[in-house]
Amino acid sequence: MSEYEKLSFHPISMDDRNWINERLKEEDLDACEYTFANNYMWAKGFNVQVGSAYGCGVIRYRAQEHFQYSFPFGNGDKRAMVEHIRKICAVHGCRLSIYPVTEEQRAQLIKWFPGAFEICSNRDGFDYVYTVEKLASLKGKKLHGKRNHIARFMDDGDWHYEQMTEDNIAECRSLAKEWIALRAEKWNDEMEQEAEVLEVAFSGFRELGLCGGVLYKGGRIVAFTIGEPLNRDTFVVHFEKALPDLQGAFPMINQQFVLHEMQDYKYVNREEDTGDQGLRKAKLSYYPDILMRKYRAVESHVVFADDTVFEPVKAMWNQCFGDDRAYIEMYLQNRFESENMYVIYQDDRPVSMASLLPVQVTINGKKENARYVYAVATLPEYRKQGYASEIIRHAFEKYMEPLILQPADRDLQEYYERQGFRDAFGESPCWIYAGRCTEPAGSHILAASGHDLRAAEETDPEKEMDILGGWLVSEADDKEYKAVRDAFFDGEGYVEWDGQAIAYAIKENQFCGGRTLLLTEDRDTEDPQKAVLMYRREGDNIHIMESTLDDDALHDILPELLEHTGAAWAYERNMGGMILLPERFQDWDCRDGYLGLTLG
Fold first, then answer.
1. CA nearest neighbour of 403 among 434, 371, 446
2. Do 115 and 345 touch, CB atoms closer than 8 A?
3. Cα torsion angle, 482, 485, 488, 490, sign
């Protein structure tokens, strides 16, 4: 028998229940998808199939054109199983896609197959996990509202809870039909599919090993819920239905089910929200103890970097950009995340990389998600093979969002033009405020300060600076800086960084010998004007990294700033940038706007 014939798949059936459950018990997996009943109930809608080999089980289901596979489960050789499935996918001309992948399974894939899988998460698929004690007691100020709703439900005392049994399932079916009727105007394919799955749960309730709870009020069923044990310490809830207009019905069935059926467990997994904002709000209102991240792994030549490749990434960064190790480590410690740096492997190591940092850009009056492309590099011996272009193309196709960057020189600008980028964000002329210098070509000298190098040498740069040209001076924190920056620059074409990015920009500026100042108008008013100024000392220069002061106001304070820092001259230049736009934004005029704090 050939290796390929050792693994075959067939539609999931009740005959598979025992062996699948045995394999699952060998691992105690905590993602909500890892139960036999859950896969059986959804079998029709997703063409669920199962197979076993190498001492492992695996589940696959139809996802668009090709099958998607679970991570192998059981005590067997999971790596061999993944390798085998990769061969099956190759025969069919598709890439292996694995879902769900837990944190532990993600680490195993990275170790077994470095550079082979793009592993990414989707917030819509995160599982909400709570402690049994929290949902049973509803203690604390945050859950005070839930207790109030339950109190209103219990006001007249005409209620009771029962386990779901064959005797009351028929009435639960009636409630499900009533629930469907109340949503007739909003009915869609997803709701229809859930209704079909619920009927499978009712029909196979005992055989599937499900557990349910039923809530009565006024002599009729007003809510029910269905779940099952997920592993030794976690119970998973699959369905929860209640009359929507009956106050307290949902929190009441939730609490009663936990109190009566889950006292032998530590956690309750209430599954994901699938991106439904109403459902997300409801699940978040119970303040989950764990928001369990799940991943999808897809075979890819372009993959996300992870912390196991920091050393080769540092070496590549240093060789390509010349930055010292301390600077590179600061960036990785503060800005690296598991899904914001792409790399390509060759010879068992990363040889090309690019960071994709989240930003927002205002396009046609609306803030749109975008990615700032930073630190694009390929080791010299691997260049001219299209790796950097492949990373950019992969990111563009994956996110379908504008890509923004700031090329370092003309050659790079021409390179990015060939990739489809266009000039954007209005490059400003460089200006120089000087005491003693030679005017560079194309620069504009605003004024002479009378400050020279001899005076600079006599200046104490460490002295306190509490006022500049009538502005009160303090160190700006990230929240203050972002608020002032956003208010000043906001408008069409403004590239807005989030709080984490602003915090890093301040830290990076400080690391490079700079300061970030909050300037407050020195007037006795309730709402004084505020501005920010970020600068750094570079030899005899002050480089104005960014400011919300206009040219006149900045001109007024520069003599004092030069005196304080001991610098001979100051300059500022906004180099603008380039943008790659998805088709839906092709008509947008991107020449205006503002791009700053690019770390370029």
1. 371
2. yes
3. negative
Both tokens of residue 162? 């029962």
- Tokens at 119, concatenated: 């592993």
Residue 523 corresponds to which tokens in the numbers above? 């007037």
Separation of alpha carbons 404 and 595, rounded Å: 9
**Is pLDDT larger for residue 411 or for residue 134?**
134
Tell me the sheet residues that pair with 530: 520
Please state, in angstroms and rounded to a whole number, the distance separating the CA atoms of residues 298 and 394: 13
Number of H helices, E strands in the chain: 19, 30
Measured from the Cβ of residue 573, the count of other Cβ atoms closer than 10 Å reads 14
| Residue 107: φ, ψ to 5° | -60, -35
560: amino acid identity, one letter: E
Other C-beta atoms lying within 10 Å of the C-beta of residue 238: 22
Tokens encoding 206: 């005992």
CA 73, 77, 83, 85 dihedral sign is negative
- Report yes or no: 396 and 390 within 8 Å, Cβ to Cβ: no
Distance CA 507, CA 513 (A): 10
Q: What are the two backbone dihedrals, phi and then psi, of residue 358, each rounded to the nearest 5 degrees?
A: -70, 135
| Token pair recorded at residue 55 | 């001492």
Interatomic CA distance for residues 376 and 181, integer angstroms: 55
Please give the Cα distance from 548 to 414 (Å, whole number).
Answer: 31
Report which of 255, 222, 228, 296 is spatially closest to residue 135, judged by C-alpha positions: 255
Q: Residues 377-394: pLDDT tens digits? A: 999 999 999 999 999 999
From the centroid of its chain, how far is CA 411? Answer: 33
Q: What's 249's DSSP letter?
A: H
Closest by CA to 304, choosing from 429, 399, 174, is 399
300-350 per-position pLDDT tens digit? 999 999 999 999 999 999 999 999 999 999 999 999 999 999 999 999 999
User: Which residue type is seen at 15?
Assistant: D
How far apart (Å, rounded) are the C-alpha atoms in residues 53 and 8? Answer: 9
In the sheet that 267-269 helps form, which strands lie side by side, from edge to edge?
159-163, 211-217, 220-229, 234-242, 267-269, 127-131, 290-292
The pTM assigned to this predicted structure is 0.88
Q: Which amino acid makes up residue 29? A: L
E strand or H helix at 570: strand 569-572
